[in-house]
Structure formats: structure tokens, C-alpha cells
Amino acid sequence: MDAEWEDDSSVMDVLDKQIVHGLVCDARIPFARLGAILGVSEQTVARRYRSLRKLGILHVSGQVNVVPLGHARWILRLESAPSRAVALAESLARVPDLNWVSLLSTGSEVMCVCRPRSLERRDELLLRQLPRVSQLKGMVAHEVLRAFPFEEEWPRYSYLLSAEQLRELGPRPVMWEPTGPKSSVVLSREDEIMMTVLGRDGRAPYAQLAAATGWSATRVARRMSELLEAGVLYFDLDFALERMGYTARASLWLQVRPGHLDGVGKAMATHPEVAYVAATAGPSNLMASIACRDASHLYRYVTERLGPLEGINNVEVTPVLRLFKQSQALVEVDRVTVLP
């Protein structure tokens, strides 16, 4: 772990970060088990978690992975008049199918991730709904061909735990398989209800999920395990990045020679700064989201860590001026808030 990642300006202490790592490994891990692994009481873990949520530093949500459902993800770059860009981003942040809504440093470009759940919804968004938006002047859609998995998910706090603690936690399951889904999955009405509740609170108790779906708590737990194993359901954590010490965020758009694309993507997936990296169709064939301490850290990443990788022809760095929505939560200044 680089020294600059160990000494940061985060409002979280070591125990907070250890709890976050536990949640990254297993978002629904019982607090009693996590406390036993970390050597603290169940009440201490619960109190720290509630505090982090109340302060708007993190939010745990259950998400639908559309790939096993037979659908693609899209990364959109939307051009707007500078005076209308904020209004465009604010409106897009309220659309359920759109995530990671950001205003880029050009001041007139909004980026977002589109995860339509059906071909009809894809066409409605990309061909009808978005083109009719009055603020929109242009759109480039990059289809995600492959998202490169990480050995350790961001923010990568495993260095704060012992080898024994890491073994007890175990690895987080890889969400995206390079070979694609083994078989199609159909979601029932009750599945959709469960997903909606988990989207608001990824740690919603089984009793609450049972009441919402009309199932028994045992059936809810069994179905959740089935969807996790199929890769349809996964859990994500949204963070107030500035309060964690990350003040420089950027999207990278790379043009990589085809023979080197897989190697560059896998290499970037090992970099501590990289929160997401994917091969895409479109003007650039590799896209990455990175989080750095400051502009100097961003410069060093591009020149010292990214620069030496063989096969990169061009890199466009677009710093993020403002993040409006993450995976599920809205971002308000320095806190994340749950969508109503």
C-alpha cells in the first residue's frame, strides 16, 4: 500500500475503516460476527455503522446486475449548454436507470451510467427520452463490453486488518464474469419488491423484506442467496468521498491498441486509485473512474502509474467537478442521501 494512502485526511478512524472493509466483503455481515473478527463488541460495530450513515458518509444498497438478465450497461457522455448542465445532471440523478451522474470539468458535459432492465427501456431512454431533453445538445453512448474485476474492491482498506482477520472475512464475490451469464434469470414481482427495498437499505432485516414481499423470512433469505449466486443481486457502498480525503476525482477515456486492451484493463484493476475500469465500444475503448487525494496525486497517477503501461495511444483526463449521484444515493455537498 502506497504511503499516501495510509496517511489521509479522512474523518474515519482505523476502526471505521475496518468496518467499511468488512461491509465491502459482505454488506450484510452480522455485526456480532464482524465485531468478533475485529475484536470489538457487536454494539460498538452497530453504533459506528449508524454514525457513518447518519453523517452521510456511507450508504449500503442492493443493486441489480443487468448482465445476467441479458442486457448491457452503457456509459453516456451528454453535452449541454454550460448554463443548463447542472439542471441536466440534477434531473438525470432522479432517473432510476441512471447512476454515477457527474458534471465533468468541461462544465458542459454530464456523464452517467445507464443500466436498462429491458430492450424496451433501453430504446426508451437512449432513442426517445434523452434526445427529447431540452438541455441536451449531443450524446455519445459507450456500451460496456467488459468490466474488469478487482481482487479487492475500492476503497481498499484490507491493509488495516491482519491476515487472520482477512481470512475470516473471506473475499468478496466477483460480480462480473468475463464469460457472461451462464443462464438467463427472470425476476418475479416479489423479487422486484425485494430489490426495491434493498436499494434503499442494503441491510434491511429479513423480517422487513418478508413483510414487503409476503414471503417468509426463510424464503427471503433463500431467494436472496439464489440471486447473489446468479450474479443478479450485488451490494454496493456509496461514500462521501471528500470526507474520506479524496478531493480529486476523474474519468479517464483511453484509446488502447486492441492487442493490449485486456492487459491494460487488468493492470489498471490493480491500481489503488481505480474504482472502476471497463472495456467499451465507442470513440475510446477503455474507461476508468479514479479517486485521488489531490491534483498532484492525480498527475502522479497519470504519469507514473498509467504512463508506463504498454499499448496506450491516448488518454483523455476529465476531472469531475461535481458528483450528483453514485450507485444509488444522491450526493449533496459532502454527504450521501438515500433516494426517496
Please write out the topology:
Layout: H1 3-6, H2 14-25, H3 31-38, H4 42-54, E1 58-64, E2 74-80, H5 85-92, E3 98-104, E4 109-114, H6 119-129, E5 136-147, H7 163-169, H8 189-200, H9 206-213, H10 217-230, E6 233-239, E7 248-256, H11 261-268, E8 274-280, E9 286-292, H12 295-306, E10 312-325, E11 330-332, E12 335-337
Antiparallel strand pairs: 1-6, 2-4, 2-5, 3-4, 3-10, 5-8, 7-9, 7-10, 8-9, 11-12
Helix pairs in contact: 3-4, 8-9, 9-10
Largest sheet: 8 strands, antiparallel, barrel
**Coarse morphology:** globular
Helix/strand order, N-terminal first: HHHHEEHEEHEHHHHEEHEEHEEE
How many runs of DSSP E, i.e. beta strands?
12
Strand order of the biggest β-sheet: 2-4-3-10-7-9-8-5
Q: What ranges have pLDDT less than 50 throughout 5 or more consecutive residues?
A: none
| Amino-to-carboxy terminus distance | 38 Å
Helix tally equals: 12
What proportion of the residues is helical, as a percent range? 25-40%
Calculate the mean pLDDT score and round it: 91
Tell me the radius of gyration: 20 Å
Strand portion, in percent? 25-35%
The secondary-structure class comes to: alpha+beta
Overview of the molecule:
- The chain is of the alpha+beta class and 340 residues long.
- α8 crosses α9 and α9 packs across α10.
- The mean pLDDT is 91.
